[in-house]
Amino acid sequence: MSWFAPGLEPLFAVAAATLDENGRLIEANAGFLRIIDLEGKPIGAPVARFFSQPSFAALIRADPAADGEIYRGLLTMGDNTGPTRTLRAHVWRVESHIRVLAEYNIEELERLNDKVLELNREYANAQMELAQTNFKLQQREAEIIALSLTDPLTGLGNRRRLEEALATEITRVERTGERFSIFMTDLDHFKRINDTYGHDAGDKVLTSFGDLLRKQTRATEILARFGGEEFIALMPHTGLKHALSTAERIRVVIASTRIEPLSERITASFGVAELTTGEKGDSLLRRVDKALYAAKDSGRNCVIAG
């Protein structure tokens, strides 16, 4: 009959076993079987080698003639080639049988738990630092991408930004059938501004002109400096009539506004065009450019549809 108390057999936190004096296993609970980790049928197998400190031979040499407790203290068990466990153990001899009852060393478990907590904290900190680093890298990457698409003087989009946005908008129009227009504007007599006030003043005028365009257009409209003093606005969801009205309103605002650092007012000319069915970006840009030059030829400070 087994000496195991009810409920002891399935426990893992306690190791219980009965062995003969040759170290062969007679019975064992789940906790002891986990320590020896033998494949197949462990009952009847020699398991003395799993007693590391003290050894099984040292245990049975203690008072070999008498029954009763033969050892109490720390017992290190496990395969010499693998991990070992240190437990608090009681060992008895009862009628030539060796009974082992051991529980995991609480102090050892606490040290192990503290180490696990420390490692978890270090891992969490490392994960947080990694996440922060990744976030900063993503921010920097976004900044670099934004810079590559931005005109450094005005802060508006550059030509690359214009080309990417124009291709995206044309694809959207092809998919949805919505209307799409653009306008191109050019400051009148800008060369005279540079010649009279210098290029630094000319740059300030371009910056102020870009700010004015930004304030006079919707957030959904994309502004870009096309080159020199030419600027383009992409106007999604907008037909030609509304685009012409917008360009005219902006023309009036420009003509009535003194742009720093000039003392006199300046004007701008506008060309406007709406995308036609099946038209590509290059064709649309050529039409709006032609309309702008028509506005220049018509005396400047006006809006012409292309």
What is the number of helices?
8
Structural class: alpha+beta
Indicate the CATH topology of the largest domain: Alpha-Beta Plaits
**Series of H and E elements:** EEHEHEEEHHEHHEEHEHE
> Which strand order spans the largest sheet, edge to edge or round the barrel?
2-1-6-5-4-3
Please provide the count of β strands.
Answer: 11
| CATH architect. name of the largest domain | 2-Layer Sandwich
Q: What is the CA-based Rg, rounded?
A: 43 Å
End-to-end CA span = 104 Å
Query: How helical, in percent, are the residues?
Result: 40-55%
- Report the mean per-residue pLDDT as an integer: 87
Fraction of residues in β-strands: 15-25%
CATH superfamily of the largest domain: Reverse transcriptase/Diguanylate cyclase domain
Number of domains: 2
User: For the report, how would you describe the main beta sheet?
Assistant: 6 strands, antiparallel
